[in-house]
Structures are given as structure tokens and as C-alpha cells.
Amino acid sequence: MNGYVQLTLEMNAYLLGCLVLLAFWIAVLYILKRKRRFQDIRELWWASFACSLLGVTEPLFVPDYWDPPSILKVWRWDFESFLFCFGVGGLAAVLTEFPRIRRVLLWIDFQFFRMVRGLLTGLSWITREALPLNRVSGISSSALISKEQRRMENMILVLAFTAMFGATSQLNLNIIYDSAIVCVTTAGFIWWRRPKLRWQIFGGGLSFTLIYTVVLVAVGWVYPDFYDHWNWDELSGCKFLGAPIEEYLFSFTFGVFWAPLYEAWREEPRASGL
User: If you ran DSSP here, which 8-state letter would residue 138 be given?
Assistant: First the structure.
């Protein structure tokens, strides 16, 4: 093979991580089928295929962020990145949809924002200025807007996502930090426009980070040299359980962005905040 195409048909750490993610994905699909949660199954497939397209962005991360092993590499693209994005997208989108997890997240959301609402109410009384309490409480007319307005909001969401990538590229940061800023900013836009999805936003970050931590630890246990593939000179140098802290930054910020995306794109949210 020439320098642009590399073929190595043997197991590697990145492929193992993808297979562990796909094992979680298959387990989730099995549970959803057993529970006959067909709407969640559709979301799982939609999120997985949509996210798999992000595999084409891998050259942005190689080699500035890392240089992973691969069974098939074409220039800076690698086969595993598409598998990785497929598994990541589905898991980040539906982990919060399980009833028990959702109930816990809604309870946390209610308790936290009841406290925030109380603080804002007190601040409003002190300053004698009206504050956006409806937004904080999750009360919004955004779920009642017309289809045309919903399409407009979706277009704004796409433009905001694209514009943020362009803006962060001027900061001369590593791509992983750019991605984190873009994900958090986009999630913030969804939170503001669709406050009833806020429980899914922070829930997606927490639940996906937990799954991703299991994957990182499992791969690092089998392949102790796995963490050598990151470009440590361009990162903070901080580690957690052997992996660069930026990996956990990625998992959380991607989770808060991707988890509510399917619901935000729909005409109506399937679940409401308290």
C-alpha cells in the first residue's frame, strides 16, 4: 500500500473500544425491543446513522489530537471512526429514555431548578426587575409554535452550530476544545429554546460519560499502551484513570449536545420537564 492507504487486518485498541461500544449499543437495542419501545428504537437508529456521518471529521483530530491505530486507514480517515461515531450517537441519544433513568433525571432537574427559581424570585424581589422565570421553570410556548417556526428554529440551530465551529477555529485551540465549546454552546441554545428538554441535556452528558468511562478503562486494561496514541504535548497533560482528561470532556459535552438533538428537531417533545 502507498502512504495514503494502510491496511492492517489485526485487532487494535481503537477497534476493541468500538466493539465494546457496539456491545452496549446491541444491549440497548435488545432491551428496547423487549420493552416494545418502538419510538426509542427509531431514535436509536436515527441517531446512530446521523452521527456515523461525523466520522468524516476525523482528519480534524489527526494528528493534532491523537493518531489512533486502524485496520484500514486512508490518509487521515480510519475505518474505526465510523464505527465509533455510530455507537456513540445511538447511546448518547437514548440512554436517558429508560423510564427509571428518566425519573431520576426529572427529579434532579426539578429539585435543582426549584432552587434556582427560588433564588431568582428573591433576586427579582430585591431588584424589582422581572426575570425570565418561565424559562427557568421549563414553561415555554416553544412547543406550541407552528411548523414553519419550528423549521426556522432548526435552521438557526444548524447555522449556530456551523458558526460556532468557524468562530472557535480562530482561537488556535486544539480541536477537542473547539468541539467542546461548540457542543456546550449548541446545547445551551437548545436549553434556551426548549427548556423542557433540559433534563435530557445534562442527563445525556452524565449517562454517556459513565458508559464512555467504562469503555476507556476496559480498553486501557487490555492495551496498556493505548493512551500513548494521544498527542500529549498539545493537551493539558491531566489524566483520569489513565486516559487524558480531554476524553471525559469530549464525552460529557458531546452527550449534552447529542442527547436532546432528536427531540429538539421534532415537532413536539416526547417528555416534559417538571
Answer: T
